[in-house]
Amino acid sequence: MSTTIQISDNVKKNLDKMKIHERETYNDVIEVLLEDNMELSENTRKELKDRTKSPKLISHEEVKRLHGL
Fold first, then answer.
1. What's the maximum distance between 2 C-alpha atoms anywhere in the chain?
2. Which residues, given as ranges, of the chain have pLDDT below 70?
């Protein structure tokens, strides 16, 4: 079953930019966006939301140390 939806010109332009190839449908682009969004678990979303509220800043040196660089 298909449904017609209305989107703004701005949203359409953004969807056009996200197409991998010219013949890709808007449905395909939206499915990819939904899949990416659904991959984040509820805990991950909460953690990301909490981090953006009170970000912990660390130096480049600390990042290098943490990643063994």
1. 55
2. 54-55
